[in-house]
Structure formats: C-alpha cells, structure tokens
Amino acid sequence: MIHSLFLISHAGDLFLEKHWKSVISRSVCDYFFEAKEKAGDPENVAPVLQTPHHYLISIYRGKLFFLSVTQTEVPPLFVIEFLHRVADTFQDYFGECSESVIKENTVTVYELLEEMLDNGFPLATESNVLKEMIRPPTILRSVVNTLTGGSNVGGILPTGQLSNVPWRRVGVKYTNNEAYFDVIEEIDAILDKSGTTVFAEIQGVIEACVKLSGMPDLTLSFMNPRLLDDVSFHPCVRFKRWESERVMSFIPPDGNFRLMSYHVSSQNLVAIPVYVKQNISFLETGSCGRLDITIGPKQTMGKMVEGLMVTIPMPKSVLSVNLIATQGTYTFDLTTKVVLWDVGKLNPQKLPNLRGSLSMQVGAPKPEENPSINIDLKIQQLAISGLKVSRLDMYGEKYKPFKGVKYVTKAGKFQVRT
Amino acid sequence: MAFEEVCPDRIDLIHKNYRKLCNLLVDVEEWGQVVIINMLTRYARTQFTSPWKEDAVFDENNEKAFYDSDSEEKQGQKEAKPYIMDPDHRLLLRNTKPLLQSRNTAVVMAVAQLYWHLAPKHEVSIVTKSLVRLLRSHREVQYVVLQNIATMSIQKKGMFEPYMKSFYVRSTDATHIKTLKLEILTNLANEANISTILREFQTYVKSQDKAFAAATIQAIGRCATNISEVTDTCLNGLVLLLSNRDETVVAESVVVIKKLLQTQPTQHSDIIKHMAKLFDNITVPMARASILWLMGEYCERVPKIAPDVLRKMAKTFTSEEDIVKLQTVNLAAKLYLTNSKQTKLLTQYILNLGKYDQNYDIRDRTRFVRQLIVPNEKSGALNKYARRILLAPKPAPVLESAFKDRDRFQLGTLSHSLNIKATGYQELSDWPAVAPDPFVRNVEVIEPVQEWAPSVGKAKQPKSDNKFYSDDEEKEEEGSVSGSEDSSSSSEESGSESEEESSEESEKTSSDSGKSSSGSEVSSSESEPEQKKKKQIKKANVRRSKQTAPDSDSDENGNGPVSKTSSSSAESSSDSESDSEEDSDSDSPAPQKKTIVKTKPKVEVRSKKEVSLLDLDDFSPAPPSTPKSSVFSSSLLSDLEGLSLSNVSSAMQVTTSSFGPVKTYELLHHMTGKGLSAKYHFPRQPFLYQPSMVAVQVILTNSSDHSLEEIHIGDWSPASLNIHCFNTVERLESEASVTVSMGIDFSDSTQAANFQLCTKEDQFSVSIQPAVGELLMPSTMKEPDFCNEQKKLMGMNETSATLTMATANASKQNISKQVLSVANVAVVSSDQNNLQRFAGRTVSSRALVLVTLELRESSTALLTINTEKSVMASMLLRDLKQALSQA
C-alpha cells in the first residue's frame, strides 16, 4: 500500500523520509517538484500524481507537504486520509505540525511513523493507543531521558488495541471526573454584492473532553435532534441507537476527541449574523482605487459578535494600501497582497469601518473582478442552528461526574462577493 | 487484507466467509473496512445478478420489486423474470450503510462506490449526503471526492441536484477544485436550474483566476449546447465577453462561439461580422484561427467581409502562427471557390507564400489545396469535387464532459483519479447473466452462529440420517447390484427434502434454484459437521481418501456438476463407506476385531464404527463372494512381478524390489477399439505424482491402417475416483505403439476403475480391475519388528488358513516367488527355516499387511495374514492359497 513517506517543506526541502517496504530513491520527488513548480501556488498542486513507476499522493498541511509513494492501485482517499491522520497525530503530540517542530522531535516522529504503518498498511492510528505506546514528549521526560538514556517508548503493549473498545484504555483514574462538550457550529456562506445570500449552510461538530474514571457509558440526547440532517460519528458511538432513538450512546475515549460532526439541513433558513456594506472600486484612468467597508450586526440572537476578522485578497496589481480603520488594526502583506483587518468585538452602536485608497501599479489594466471579502467571527454561547443538548446521563460507574456544555458559532467559509 | 495482496482473483475463497465478513464489517477497524468493502464489491459483482436491468423495465413500479422478494415463491415462476435481490446481496448493502457515517473519508468513499456499483438505481442516492459532507473536509479529500461526484453526476443528475449549491465555487478554492466544481455544475445543469447556474457562471467569468475563467466559458458553451432554450442567451453573453479586456477570456469565447455556431446552423451572420471586427485585436492564435475558420465556413453569409479579412491576412501571413496560417490557406481556398472573381489573386498570393513556408505542414497543405482548386489538365478528377470537399456540411462538435469516459474505472480508485489504468488495478467484472450458485455461502449456516441458523439442532438430525442412507446405498450396490437402489435413493431424496425445508426456513432462500441445487446444498451442509467429527478419523487413514464407489449417491440424485463441496462430502462418505465395507466383508468375526485397530484416536473410531455397525445390522449385505471371485480368477493367472516402493514409516522401510516379467492385461481389444488396442500392466513402482496411487502402464497400439490422434482419457466413473491421466498422445501412427503410465487411486478396494479411452473420433469405455496383490507395496522390516507389528494385529485383524502345497513349491525360493507373483510384498529375512514372512503396505492408506507362511510336515502349510484391512486379508488369502496350491 503506502511505500514511503517524504516530508517536504514549503520551500521544497526534503527533510525527512521514511520507507516501510524498500527504499525508494529521493529522485522520485522530482516529479513532484516539477508539478509544484508548474502549479505555482502550493494549494494548486494536484494531490494525485503519476510517474512512470510510482504514484505520488500528497497533502499540504501547515506549510508542509506530506508526500507518499505507492506502487500499486490503492484508493487515493485511503492514503490521503491516512496522511491527514499522521498530521493530526503530530499536532496532537507536539502542539503544532510544522517543519521546526518535526525536526526537533525526529526520534518521536520516526517512532510514531513506525507504529502507525506496518508494511504499508495503517496499524495504530488511534491517538489513545499511540500515546500508550509512545508517550508524548514533555520537558521533564526529555531531561530524564537524556540523563538515564531511556526512551519514551512504552514498555508495555497497549491494552486497548486488542479489546473491543480499542479507543479506550482500561484502568483510567481521575480525582475530578469531568465531561465537557463543545458544540461548535460554522456558517458557510456566500453573499453576493447586494448582500443577498447565494448559499448558506451550517456545519457543526461536537468536540468532547472527557476525563472520567473506569468504563463510563454515556448517553447524550438533544432537544431537537431532527435538525441534524447528516451526521458522522466517532467510532465509539452506537449507530443503532442513534437510528432508532436519536440519542448518542457511547463509551468515550479518554481525553479530547471529536464526538460527531453534523450538517444542518439546507432547507432551514440560515441566520447570517452580520452584514457587510462594501464599496471597492478601481478608477479607470488613474492608478488608484477606493475601498470602503462597513460591518454591522444582522441576526445575532442578542449575542455579542467577537473575534471579527476581515480578509481581502487584493488583485496582484495593487502595490500598497492607505486605509483608516475606525476600530481594530489592519495589515497588508506585500507578497501575498492580502489585507487583514482585525476588528475584534462588534459594537452595534458604533459600526466598524475601514476606508482609504489603494495605489496600483502604473500602467496595469484595471482589475477585472473586485476581490471577495472573507469574514471570520465568533459568537459565544450560541448555536446558530438552534441545536440544544438536553441531557447527559452516565451508566456503568458509581461516581457523579461534572458535566458541561458550551456552544460556539463561528464563521466557516464566509465569503462576500463584491 | 492479505487476501488482496496475495490472491485477489480467488473469489471462491470468500464464499464461506462472506456473511461473516458482512456482519463483522461494522466492528472492523476503519482501514480494514476500506479493504474489505473494496473486496466485497468485486466479489458481489461476480456473484449476484444485476439489480439494474429490472429498474429499467419496471422503473415506474419499483415497489413491486420489494413485494416480489416477499412472495418470491409465487411470483418467481410467472412474469418475464422479476428481479429478486439475493438475500446476501441485500445483507451487504444493509451492513455497509451505517458506515456512511464513518469519520474516515476513505470508508465513506468505499461505501459510496459500493452502492454505486452494486445497489439498485433508486437506492444509490442515499450516499449523496455523505459525499457532500466530505466536501467540508481537507482540500485533497475534496479533490478526490469531487472527481468521483463528477463521474456520478454525468450518469445520474438527480442524485446531486438538490445539493447543487454545495458546488458553488469560492474564490479561495484551489484551481483544480474550482474546475471540478464547475464540471459538476455543468453536469447538473438542466432547464429548471440553468438560469441560476448561468448567473453563477457570470460571477466566475470575472474571476482573477484566468484558467478558471476560461474553463467557465467552456462550461457555458456546454450548457448552451445541452439545453437548447438558453443557447441564444449564452451566445449573447459570450459575444459580450468578446469585448473583455483579458485575452485568454476572449480567445476562449471565440473558440466556444465557433463551436456553438457550428451546432446552430441558423442565421448568426451578425455575430460573425462582430467577430471579424474584433479580429484585429485578438492575438491568441487559437482564437484567430477559429475566426478564420468561421469566415471560411460561412463565407457565403458574409460575402463582403470575408475577402477583406483575407486581404488583411495576406499582409500579415508570414508573421502568423502555424495554426493561423493553415486556416488562412483554408479560407483562401474556400473563397476562391465561392467568390473567385474577387479573391483569385489574393488566393494565389497566399498559396505562393505558403509554398515557401518553413513549416512542411503548411507547404503540404498549400500544395494540396493548389492542386485541388486551381484547374489544370493533370488534376481533372478531383477538381470537380473540390467544392464538395471543401464546403461539405460539417457535423457539429459534441461538447461533452471530460469525465465521460472515466466510468470505465471503479469509483474511488487510483485509476479513476488518474484516468489511467494503475498497476494492480482490478477490473470490476460485469454482472453475471445468471447468478452463481448462492448456496456456496451457506456453510456458514451450520456454524454455531445462533441467529442465522435457528435450526442447527434440527439440521443435524436429518443429516446423519442421510448419511446412513447413502452408506446403505453404496453397500447394496456393491454387494448385489439388484433393485435395492430404488428404495435407497428414494429414501435419500426424502432425507434431502426435509433438509431442504429446514434450510429454507432458516434463511428464506428462493426456491427457484430448483431441486438439484438444493440437493447439493444438502451435501455441502452435511459435509461440515461431518468433517469436524471425522477429522481424527481422517488422520488415521489419510491415504484412503478417494474411493471408487461411494459418490454414486450424489450422482444419482442428479446433482449435476459435482461441486467442490459435494465432492468433499463424497469424500467423507467414502471414508465411512470403506470402513463399513471392511466390516461387512470380513464376515462374522469382523465387528469385534475392530477395536484393536492401532490408530491413536480410538474414541473417534469407535463412534464412527457405531454407524457402520448399525448399517450392518439393518441391511445385511449380500455375501460378496460371487462377484469377487470372478475378479480374482483373472488376477490369479496374472501376476508375475517387478516391484518397488519407497516410503518411510517408523521402524520399517518400504523397499524397491524388482522381479522379472510382468503380466499384462487386455484393456481394449483392437476389434472393439476400431484399430486401437490397449494393454496394461502394473509396473509395481510407486507412482511419481501421487504416492497413494497405483501406477498402471498402458501400452497403446494402433493396429489400424491410419494414424490416430489425440488419444486421451475422458470421463471416468465413479467420479470420486482419483485418476492421474497420462498426457494426451497427440498422434499415433499406424502400426506404432506407445507406452504411457497413469495413476489410479483405488482406495484399497478392488473395485474396477471405469473410464473412457478417447481418440479424436471415438471413445471406448474400458475398465481396469486390480488384483488385490497389486494394491500393496513392499515394505522391508526386520524380523523383530515384524513380530511386534504382528502382535498388534492379532484377533480380529488376523486371517489364516491351512493349505496343501503343490509339490513344485517345496523349496523356499519357489514359495517366495509364488507369493511375490501374487502380491507386491517384500520378503522379511528370517533364520527360521519353516517360517516365511512377507511384509507390505496398502498403497492408499498405508496399512500394514503381514503375511506369514508356516510350513508343516507333509506339504501342508499355515498361511496367516495380519492386517487391519480384513477385506483385503481374506481376498489376499484366497489368492495366495490358490497360487501356492496350484502352481
């Protein structure tokens, strides 16, 4: 299946390689570099490439390319999913998935890769199982390891892998038994010039942080489960019960995990929390343009809009911007030509506004299209779809856990066309 | 997983595990799920009939199909043949459905492709939602999923139409994702939603991503051709784009307009005029070439403009791109034909330029065109047709999706993604016209999985009954070939019927598969526990496996082609059969003796024996003496020897000894064989290919006046008989002869092996009947070993007789010569004068056969044979007695 893995930095340096079967020469990556060269933007590199003898499947995460090599037919999603799982694991272990972090923890990285794939076939991808075998690095441990010459590979085989609840290890003990659930909803929307909604939908996830002793059996029920149109679960959720009763019954993994992700049926009208009044124009003759953006609250259900952030990718011909923000700060990246306006809290009394002029390359034609505006925001204590958790029950253990549910609404791919 | 790597073609290995796999699928870890689902997809494509055909026919009443499956028995007969989904097929679909909710995108995709390839058309759409959900995932996942959706959306628009908006393009998407989304939107376009889509496209055209904008224009072109209502709107929109500032956009529009105009042979001369005006500003070669082509094609509609364009081109000809030059030549030629007055000189000028062009394509084209249009005496023939050649009405190009041909690959595969056959890609086979026997998967029923086989307990009962019957039948056949067959076979059938019912209860199989297959089902289900029970026993007599007689039961019940399972049951029954055979043949002392059998798993043996004992009581078989003796009369005269063997056993070895001439038997007389005659003898050598077989050498002689071709062995009976055929003799000349060797596993019985000796034209039934002595192979052992073994084989396993020796056989040498001529055994050297010992083993089961001859005074002797094969013992005793007393 998966023959080899190469990690390639944003700049095109190959800094780590791992082979599970036989060693494949690095030169195979030349085909990839060629494709990367052609595509220009790293986002545009096709994930599946063909070379005379190998097939290259790559992902781009955190300014890194994970490039895997296979020699035979394999479902491409299989490899892609696995590579993302690897990236997730790195993130989980080291806090972030970047070149410097991986270089710092090369030993652990190799240990992880060795465990995750066996002869090209995914083996232990569950982070709980992995953590039992290879303990995540901490400062204390690395000091101890250097002094004693020990390693952070666990001496015992993980117990979970062989049980029928592979995601949970046995003998978990906590003094404070807690279970927290974050209901996070994201609004994907495209608004057109006049502010009407072209397309909008709500995607949600429930992230859980469960620290409970023993083998608790949890049941989570919703006030209005009918809202959920399409769901996907962590493997621990009993699908039969969901189908029949619309309650989620599961034995949770230990620690942080994503319990479910869902999609709210597109028939429902989606409340758009903010409106954007914008006017971006480029003058036909002179080499300059104008920009004027105002953002106001629309349907916020009485909650405060926070973390408002506006991103405007400018046309390549824009040389510099000269803007004044009534609230927050803005930056303009000269290389990527992106205006980033960090607004912060949205004050309904005093609407934030950004206006000013854009100076263009002399002689360049007027840009065909006005840039689109991407908006990022956050509303605490609100699930925009109206989804509500009604109760959480626990069976199988005696103690009484502390339970908490938090709702957050975010903007997902929220785009305003201008 | 190993299966995929090692032997992806061995579909037959899955049969027995199929249901287990389906049921466990949900509990398997996610990576395994992907592999298993892919494998099951391939499996299902070979094992089930297509659920699609009926949908086409019964499209309006899909419901019906459901009712059918409920009352299948009744409906199965009438109507053309309504589709009934195999319950196993349904099981697979049902069990994979929850996996659509998996968090692993690869699993979701695998299920989606499974539904796409296996589910009835109206059920496929349940995967839509999940696939659309995947679009929220990472960029790379989106890419692959969109590719697959693109392929799906070509064939089934309805599936994704409600989710059209999910494919709207964001400016932040990567280019390849944008292009794919565009592709899907184009596929989804229909009369109802085209206005929405076009409005969306208008936004895209303005995109900063020029490659994407160009792709959008092409997409608009496709929509315009596919949906006739909007063609004019699209065309107008595209014409507006012609005034766009971006070159690539304009060029693309021109190309698309060209295609559109071609499909629309209506009056669009104003558009052409407009394009002609734009011509000066357009620099992209492809666009210029397109305009030129349009001018030429519709030059009659724009009679004034076309020559002017040509004039301009003549000026700039040398600096144009090749493709533009070619089109200029074309335009010149066409104008020359329609409007030669105005353009004659221009054309000649251009042709002259072209003649000396650097590009040989252009020189070539110019020369060709010149010959075609300029009349001269040499090229008269083609000249007349020049107009028809150049101005022929041309078929409009079909604008179709780039994903059109991708459906040849299985969805979700690497090959599909690359649109190239990847190494190791397994072609998804077409649906079989007729479903293979669904019962091959039934073995599972017997296994102690309670939910599926509520009648396990019940099933066992009739099965063992069955066993008895079949045993009887065989026995009776063997003993007396009288009419007993009828009764037994009928009882067999009743047994099988009860079994059939129970099996039907347990899992609602359709009855249309008919009796024959249910028959085989019986035997197959039978074999499973039977084999378990007998595992031990088998170990004891491994070598005895195949038997000549026993499988007659399955044949007589009309099992048709003896499937693998049924043959295994036959095999197992052969074991029991041969046991019981011994019992019956060894007359009265037999039953008790058996307990002393030296095999290890005694308990098992006993339980087995009980069955055979029962048989004995119930159906005392006719004494076998009559047929048997006739068998031997021939063999008696026969054997001289020559022998061999090598096989290792604990303390003793099987040896090779060789003796003089060999007695040959007639297999086929040349009169009956139409010139082909065959003789055979036993070379008394171990058969190379399979040690449990007796080697037979056949001498084929052609006594006819013409050569015979393709002499080979055809069918043999009983089918359970194991024969190693000789290689086909391609050609046997007249008066020539050839010796071939074959192996027959007689399973230690003297039953004849019947087979057909075939030539190209004819086939002759022949049979080989071995003498009991030929079923042995010599075994050397020391005297003490011999005595030890003999002690173990006392009592029931001992047969003895007193005989009077012929005078000629007085000497020790002569005695051993006589014995060795009858039986293929080895002399055990002994220092006792009055005792002679011989040791051998049966060829197929390796049971020891010990012969002791004790000479007494006045030429009498006591002949003792010790072996657990009491049948053989008695037969061998008779043979030896005859040989020693006659001579």
TrEMBL record, chain A:
Keywords noted in UniProt: Cytoplasmic vesicle, Golgi apparatus, Membrane, Protein transport, Transport
Segments forming domain MHD: 176-417
Subcellular location(s) per record: Cytoplasmic vesicle membrane; Golgi apparatus
Pfam family, one: Clat_adaptor_s
SUPFAM superfamilies per record: Second domain of Mu2 adaptin subunit (ap50) of ap2 adaptor, SNARE-like
Family assignment from sequence similarity: Belongs to the adaptor complexes medium subunit family.
A single GO BP: vesicle-mediated transport
Entry GO terms, CC: clathrin adaptor complex; cytoplasmic vesicle membrane; Golgi apparatus
Gene assigned in the entry: AP3M1
Membrane topology, from the record: Peripheral membrane protein
Name the record gives this protein: AP-3 complex subunit mu-1
InterPro entries given in the database record: Adaptor_comp_med_subunit, AP2_Mu_C_sf, AP_mu_sigma_su, Clathrin_mu, Clathrin_mu_CS, Longin-like_dom_sf, MHD
From TrEMBL, chain B:
Transmembrane parts of this sequence: none
Annotated Acidic residues bias: 494-504, 574-586
Annotated GO CC locations: AP-3 adaptor complex; clathrin adaptor complex; clathrin-coated vesicle membrane; Golgi apparatus
GO biological process terms on file: intracellular protein transport; vesicle-mediated transport
Comp. bias regions, Low complexity: 480-493, 511-526
Domain (AP-3 complex subunit beta C-terminal): residue spans on this chain: 606-751
Keyword set, alphabetical order: Cytoplasmic vesicle, Golgi apparatus, Membrane, Phosphoprotein, Protein transport, Transport
SMART domains: AP3B1_C (SM01355), B2-adapt-app_C (SM01020)
Compositional bias per record (Basic residues), positions renumbered to this chain: 532-546
Pfam families: Adaptin_N, AP3B1_C, AP3B1_C_2
Lineage: superkingdom: Eukaryota
Domain Beta-adaptin appendage C-terminal subdomain: 775-885
Ranges for region Disordered: 454-606
Bilayer topology term: Peripheral membrane protein
Function: Subunit of non-clathrin- and clathrin-associated adaptor protein complex 3 (AP-3) that plays a role in protein sorting in the late-Golgi/trans-Golgi network (TGN) and/or endosomes. The AP complexes mediate both the recruitment of clathrin to membranes and the recognition of sorting signals within the cytosolic tails of transmembrane cargo molecules. AP-3 appears to be involved in the sorting of a subset of transmembrane proteins targeted to lysosomes and lysosome-related organelles.
Family: Belongs to the adaptor complexes large subunit family.
Protein name: AP-3 complex subunit beta-1
Lineage of the species this protein comes from: Eukaryota, Metazoa, Chordata, Craniata, Vertebrata
Originating gene: AP3B1_2
